[in-house]
Amino acid sequence: MALPINIEDLINKRTVESSRIELKSDFNPNTIIHSICAFANDIDNLGGGYIVIGVEEKDGSPVFPVKGIEQHRIDNILKDLVGYCRCIEPLYNPIVEPVLFNDVYILVIWVSGGYGRPYKASKDVLGKESPKSNKYYYIRKFSSTIIASPDEEKELFYISTDIPFDDRPNLIADVDDLDIGLMRNHLKEIGSTLYERSTKMSAIEIAKDMQLLSGPTERIKPLNVGILMFSEQPEKYFRHARIEVVDIPDPTGTNMTEKVFTGPIQRQLKDALAYIKNYTIKKVIIKEKSKAEATEIYNYPYTAIEEILSNSVYHRSYQINEPITVRITPYNIEITSFPGFDRSISDKNIADYSIRARIYRNRRIGDFLKELRLIEGRNTGFPNAIKALKENGSDLFTFEMDDNRTYLSVTIPVHKYFITENDKENKITAYENKITATLKETPLSMTELAHAMGYKGITAKLKKIVSEMILKGTLEKIVDNDNKVKLKTK
Question: Mind listing the domains of the chain with CATH numbers?
């Protein structure tokens, strides 16, 4: 079989994080088996990793020209590897492929996160005996393979009870739901050597090589990632797996337009971004007498939108029946997805814009999107968006979640150049009018008011405007018969 990844990109660590790649100058059974065990344990749910034998490494980078492995040794290494893998408990066999690269042979070992984790391996696979007492749980920490500590062992057992949703078989879907054209187009786009061979392969053969299937031959099923990315109608099984872009040019909703993007999620993302880029992004060129170069300012830097929307597609839960929504107004773009940040990210981290996820919901989706260069490496999305906003002279985005983190809204403000003072006043007035109209029929609590205005919870903006309206005397607080504090118009 061939590997569904671009080998040159893999060796140069372009589409896969460096912590998930090990370059080995030669075949060393102990270190290779330990790394296979560690990648299979996949303690961070990143999707396993790759071991490339025949490529030297210096200071974290591959050494060219590639050393390679003598062709006559390859068969013996493959046979030995089968035996050494029996030192892993429970048994784990990775995918191993000899590859001709730059006129020399290398061995690429693809180790995906294992369904049978946690795995442990013999410390010395070359010993005559490998009793269980000499087996250890190996994990990856940054770019190293290490023996798990007692606390890390507990974490391994904890995560072993939960396979990421995108890596689970879809029991109500069939292999026929996978589109051979979509799979081949992906292989062609990433430059995989599997693309040429795929012209003579069936859909099920390609899906097997791309590890999109699970189960016995008599009841083989596609994985959720396969349905989401390589089916023309993922909404058949994931009803709200779509992106909705709503453009609201006027606070009253006049002339509102809505565009819904469906189909494979990578296509949704590309099409939604192209739509926003063509119809929303605006640029002005300012020439100052004191400067030789003109200054370009965008209402929204495209990179910031790209990073945040791509993150939403990557990190959303496809088990929640809610779409990703992009709400565009003259004053901001609000991108909402479900659920919110993982609990491993503290409130302080969020406030400091230090968003570093410890656990990933969709490791396989992430791999495919990285191969397509729709997202970058680990934890780079928000920093890239922040950099783009700063370079454009824009204010930073804000986060909004409820206490249970059931949703996440990221609001990107329009550049101040595109807002006049009248616009600001009109915006506040329109918002106040909306509050007044909502409270016209009956008094409401803050929570009830928020829900009536279409919010999931009380936003900072709503709280601020209500407080100002109370001070101005246009609203007042009352206590109803049930001793609940409510708001009413004067």
Answer: 7-162 (3.30.950.30), 175-234 (no CATH), 243-417 (3.30.565.60), 421-489 (1.10.10.10)
